[in-house]
Amino acid sequence: MKVPCVRVARKDGERTREALADRGVLDHDHEITVDDGWLYAPIVDPNAVPDGYTIEERDVPARETQTMPADLLGFDPSYERLGDIVLLREDDTERAQRIADAVMDSSIPAKTVLNRASKIEGEFRTREWDVLAGESTQTVHREYNYAFALDVAEVYFSPRLATERHRVVQQAATDERIVDMFAGVGPFAIPFAGRGAQVIAVDRNPVAIEYLRENVRRNDVDERIEAIEGDVREIAAGIEHEADRIVMNLPHSADAFLDTAIELAGEECVLHYYDIQHEDDPYGPGERAIRAAAEGYDMTVETQHTVRSYAPHELNVCLDVRLRA
Prior knowledge:
Shape: globular
Strand order of the largest sheet: 13-12-11-14-15-17-16
Distance between the termini: 62 Å
Radius of gyration: 22 Å
CATH architecture of the largest domain: 3-Layer(aba) Sandwich
Strand content: 25-35%
Helix content: 10-25%
Number of helices: 9
Structural class: alpha/beta
CATH topology of the largest domain: Rossmann fold
Number of strands: 17
Low-confidence stretches: none
CATH superfamily of the largest domain: Vaccinia Virus protein VP39
Mean pLDDT: 93
Number of domains: 3
């Protein structure tokens, strides 16, 4: 059966597959095929494919039905995928092991299954994990055409925030000067640099900085990112360029760093301030804290955005705030 396919050079196949999947236009009912150096990725809607891609009608085989964990368990388990690691949040250890076994026996390309064994805690916002299948807690996670190596036992990373990160990154312009105050392994900093911005990425976790530097090389943005290990409050004075944009993704305690953010801000600067507050007033505390810190600036709240539900009656939110001296 002929179906519309995006044709790309084989070397660009994985990058293209990810881009099409991110846009929701990849046809999962048909196989991706390779012929004479070209890769053909079936698509569901040619009109939704970005300009610049070549589209051809092509005979491609139907994809064999995949076996999912729910097919083996008789119920639909909840899990997250992070690279080739599957993450569970199960309190019942026997149920968790059943799910892990089903994941490994399914069509999911997983090498490790982990079940959370603690809350996020400590200076570096990490958690403990029970290894139910496989061995390694290291993986490479792909998100919006970027690849991030990480160890889930050593650094904080949430795949649930991919859409939020993309929302913020899309606001940046080429040649902006950006400071990511709590950079982790680079999920904000590296896409910013990919858009042409100059980025200073700071984190106190030495393991996160090590992975960040690896990811900078992996994504070929070496010339546009400076990775600094340390407390941003202690190194701010050494940052020479005033920032056009600052990311403050440290919910629960970002307010303690607002004086430093104002110190880093240029005459006009956008703050992306993340907070966790009660649903009755999710944005007010953050807005008031920023206004109190930003004396000498005119402040405009451009976006009040709910990222996700964090806990019963608590929301993880973001304020996009423009400051003008």
